[in-house]
Design a protein that fits this description.
Largest interface: A-B, 26 and 33 residues
Oligomer: heterodimer
Mean pLDDT of chain B: 85
Shape of chain B: elongated
Number of domains of chain B: 2
Low-confidence stretches of chain A: 226-235
CATH class of the largest domain in chain B: Alpha Beta
Number of helices of chain A: 11
Radius of gyration of chain A: 20 Å
Strand order of the largest sheet of chain B: 6-7-8-3-9-10
Helix content of chain B: 25-40%
CATH architecture of the largest domain in chain B: 3-Layer(aba) Sandwich
Bound molecules: adenosine-5'-diphosphate, magnesium ion
Order of helices and strands of chain B: EEEHEEEHHHEHEHEEHEHEEHEHH
Number of domains of chain A: 1
C-alpha cells in the first residue's frame, strides 16, 4: 500500500501529469466553448447547427464529452504510461528500489497501479471541466441547459466511466509495457505513438485482425453513442460487441502488465 | 566457502560477461567485517559490475556471493535489507526534492527510522537545499544525496561505487570521516575507486582489480610497507660498479639496470631503505645523481593504469621496471606522485 501511495505521490508531483491533464482539458474546453460561440454564425444550415449544438446540449453532451476524452485520452495514455515506465529505467530509480531489496514485479505492478489511479483522477477532473465548458458553450449559443440533470443520462455515467477508465488504463498499460521493454522513456513514447497510429493504419488493410487489437478494442468497449466516429475518437473498425470488446480490453491489460512484470523480473539492470 | 563467518562480503569465482565481453573473470573477494575495504581498479576493471552483482541488479554467470555470512542468490533479495548501496551514478527523480526522493525511496526495502532522513540531510550537508528539486543540484550534491540514500536504512554493509566522484575536497574529507566512523562502530564499508591516493587515505584493506580479476588483496599497511623499488641514476661508466655494490642489499636478481634509460639502476628494497641505497653507493665511491622511490602498491597500480594515464611527464619510473611493467612504451608514463627525485 505504501508503495502504491508513494507511486501516486510521485505522479501528482510530476509535471508530465499536469501537462497531460491540462492539454486534454484545454483542448476539450476550447472546442466546446468555440462551438458554442460560433454556432450562431450566419450561413450555417440547420443540420450543421444541430450537429454542432449537440456538443453543448445536455444530456447528449455527456456522451460527447466522454467520447472526446476517451478518444484523445487513449493516445495521451500511451504516452503517459510510456513516460512513467521509461523514466524508471532512464533515471535509474528502478535500480535504487531493486538494490534496496524491493521485489521487481511488485514495484512494476504497483507503479502501474498508481498510474491507473492517476488516470481515474484525471478522467474525473477532465470530465468536470468538460461539463463546465459545455455549460459555458451552451450559454454562448443560447441553448437550454435543462438536460443537465437528466436522470437517465446521469445514471449511465458510472458504467460509462468504468468502461472508459478500463479502456484508457489498458492503453496506458500498453505504453507502459513498451517503454519497459525498450528500457527507455523516449524510445517507449516513440514506439507507443507508432503503435497507436500503426494500428489504425493497419486497420485499413486488415480490419478483421485489427479489430481485436488493443486500441480498437478499447474504443469498441466504451459503449457511448459518441464512441464510434465521435469527435476525437479513434476510428472504430468493423463493429465488435461492446462487452466482448471489454473482455478483450481486460485480456490486453493483464497480458501487457504480465509482460512488463516478467521482463523486469528477468532484466539485467545495468543503467 | 570456508570460514566466511568473519567476512561481511565474500565472492568466489565470480564471472560475468556482457555478451561476449568478459567483465569479471573469476573474482574472489574477502571483505572482513568492520573494515573500510578499498576496491581499487582502473576504469573498466569491473568495479561497477561487481557492485551490480552484489545488489542483485545483474546475476553472475558463475561463482557465488555471500553477504553478511549468508549466500546471496536470485531468491535472496531480502538480504539486501542489511545493505546500502550507491552504484555508478546517483539516480533520483529530478522533479522531486532531496527530502522527497529519500522519502519515496524509503518505501522500498528495510524500514527507515523516524528522523533518519533529516539526520542524513544534515550529515551530507544538504539540509539547506533539501527542498529544491534534484534537477537543480550539482553533480557533487547529487553524489552526497546518493551517499545519504545508501545510508538510509542504517545498513550493516555499505557498498559505494566511486562515491568521491564530483565531490569537492571538503566533501571528500567529510565522506572519508563518515566512512571511517562507520567502520569504527562495526559497519563494513566496501568502497570502489580508480584513485590510489583516495583509497590509501581511508581503507584498512585494499583489493586491486584489473581486467576482471583480483590482482592483490591485503591490509593496506602491509602493502604499503612491502618491498618496493628504489631507482638511482649514476654515471654511465659507473653502472657496473654500482650494480655490484647494491647487490648486497637485496636478493639475487633484485638489481637491474635499465637498457631503455642508460644510467638508471633499480633495486628491490623496502621504500624506507632508500637512504641505505644511497649510503652503499657512497661507500663504493659512487654518487647518485637522482633517486626515486615507489612502494609496491603504487608500482603495481601504476603498472595497471600506466598506459592509460600516460601524461608524458618527466618521470620515467616505468621505463626501468622492465620485467613487470607494461612493456609497450618505456618512459612514457607520468610521474608517480610520491616518487621523489634526489
Ligand atoms: N551494460 C554493459 N554492457 C556491455 N558492457 C559493459 C556494460 N557495463 C560494463 N561493461 C563493460 O564491462 C567492463 C567492466 O565495466 P565496469 O564494471 O563498469 O568497470 P569499472 O566500474 O571498473 O570502471 C568494461 O569493459 C565495460 O566496458
Ligand atoms: Mg564504474
Amino acid at each position: 500500500m505504501s508503495l502504491f501511495l508513494s507511486g501516486l505521490r510521485k505522479l501528482v508531483r510530476r509535471r508530465a501529469s499536469w501537462v497531460t491533464l491540462a492539454l486534454l482539458a484545454g483542448l476539450l474546453s476550447l472546442i466546446v466553448i468555440a462551438v458554442g460561440a460560433t454556432s450562431n454564425r450566419p450561413g450555417a444550415s440547420a443540420m450543421e447547427r444541430a450537429a454542432i449544438l449537440s456538443l453543448v446540449t445536455f444530456p447528449g453532451a455527456y456522451d460527447q464529452i466522454l467520447g472526446f476524452i476517451l478518444g484523445l485520452g487513449g493516445l495521451f495514455a500511451v504516452i503517459y504510461g510510456a513516460a512513467i515506465a521509461g523514466s524508471e529505467w532512464t533515471w535509474g530509480t528502478l535500480k535504487n528500489a531493486v538494490a534496496r531489496g524491493q521485489s521487481r514485479s511488485r514495484y512494476t505492478l504497483l507503479t502501474f497501479a498508481s498510474v491507473a489511479a492517476a488516470i481515474a483522477i484525471g478522467l474525473v477532473i477532465t470530465f468536470v471541466i468538460g461539463v463546465i465548458a459545455a455549460l459555458v458553450g451552451a450559454g454562448l449559443a443560447g441553448v437550454s441547459t435543462s438536460g443537465l440533470t437528466d436522470t437517465a443520462a446521469m445514471g449511465r455515467l458510472p458504467e460509462q466511466f468504468a468502461r472508459g477508465w478500463l479502456a484508457i488504463v489498458e492503453e496506458g498499460a500498453l505504453g507502459f509495457t513498451i517503454a519497459t521493454l525498450a528500457r527507455s522513456q523516449l524510445a517507449g513514447i516513440g514506439a507507443g505513438i507508432g503503435l497507436y497510429f500503426g494500428e489504425s493504419f493497419a486497420g485499413i488493410f486488415l480490419p478483421d485482425i485489427v479489430k481485436y487489437l488493443p486500441f480498437n478494442v478499447a474504443n469498441a468497449s466504451l459503449a457511448t453513442q459518441a464512441a464510434d466516429g465521435g469527435m476525437g475518437g479513434g476510428a472504430q473498425l468493423a463493429s465488435l460487441d461492446a462487452n466482448l470488446a471489454l473482455a478483450l480490453v481486460v485480456v490486453w491489460l493483464i497480458g501487457s502488465l504480465l509482460v512488463a512484470a516478467v521482463f523486469t523480473e528477468r532484466a539485467e539492470i545495468t543503467g | 566457502m570456508t570460514n566466511t563467518g568473519d567476512l561481511a562480503l565474500a565472492t568466489r569465482g565470480l564471472r560475468k560477461s556482457y555478451g561476449s565481453h568478459v567483465a569479471l573473470a573469476g573474482l574472489d573477494l574477502s571483505v572482513p567485517r568492520g573494515t573500510v575495504y578499498g576496491f581499487l581498479g582502473p576504469n573498466g576493471a569491473g568495479k561497477t559490475t561487481t557492485m551490480r552483482l552484489l545488489t542483485g541488479l545483474i546475476h553472475p554467470d558463475a561463482g557465488s556471493i555471500e553477504l553478511l555470512g549468508l549466500p546471496f542468490g536470485r531468491g535472496d533479495r531480502h538480504r539486501l535489507y542489511d545493505v546500502g548501496a550507491l552504484i555508478e551514478s546517483p539516480s533520483f527523480y529530478p522533479f522531486l526534492s532531496a527530502r522527497q526522493n529519500l522519502r519515496e525511496l524509503a518505501t522500498n526495502g528495510a524500514p527507515v527510522g523516524a528522523g533518519r532522513i533529516e539526520e542524513l540531510l544534515e550529515l551530507t550537508g544538504l539540509r539547506d537545499r533539501a527542498k529544491d528539486a534534484v534537477s537543480t543540484y550539482s553533480l557533487g550534491m547529487k553524489q552526497r544525496l546518493g551517499i545519504a540514500a545508501a545510508l538510509l536504512s542504517d545498513p550493516t554493509l555499505l557498498l559505494l561505487d566511486e562515491p568521491a566522484n564530483g565531490l569537492d575536497p571538503a566533501g571528500i574529507v567529510a565522506m572519508r570521516e563518515t566512512l571511517r566512523h562507520l567502520a569504527a562502530i562495526g559497519k563494513t564499508v566496501f568502497v570502489s575507486s580508480h584513485l590510489l591516493a583516495e583509497v590509501q587515505q581511508m581503507a584498512d584493506v585494499v583489493g586491486i582489480i584489473a581486467a576482471g580479476r583480483l590482482v592483490r588483496e591485503g591490509l593496506m599497511q602491509e602493502l604499503l610497507n612491502a618491498e618496493g623499488i628504489v631507482r638511482v641514476r649514476v654515471g654511465l661508466d659507473e653502472v657496473a660498479g654500482a650494480a655490484a655494490a647494491l647487490a648486497a642489499l637485496t636478493a639475487s636478481g633484485g638489481v637491474t639496470s635499465s637498457t631503455a634509460e642508460p644510467g638508471w639502476i633499480s633495486v628491490r628494497v623496502r621504500p624506507d631503505q632508500s637512504g641505505e641505497v644511497n649510503r652503499v653507493l657512497a661507500g663504493a665511491g659512487i654518487w647518485a645523481t637522482a633517486l626515486e622511490t615507489g612502494n609496491d602498491l603504487e608500482m603495481l597500480f601504476l603498472e595497471l593504469t600506466g598506459g592509460a594515464q600516460a601524461a608524458g611527464g618527466e618521470g620515467t619510473f616505468f621505463g626501468m621496471a622492465g620485467s613487470r611493467a607494461d612493456p609497450g612504451a618505456p618512459g612514457t608514463t607520468g610521474t608517480t606522485g610520491t616518487g621523489a627525485a634526489a
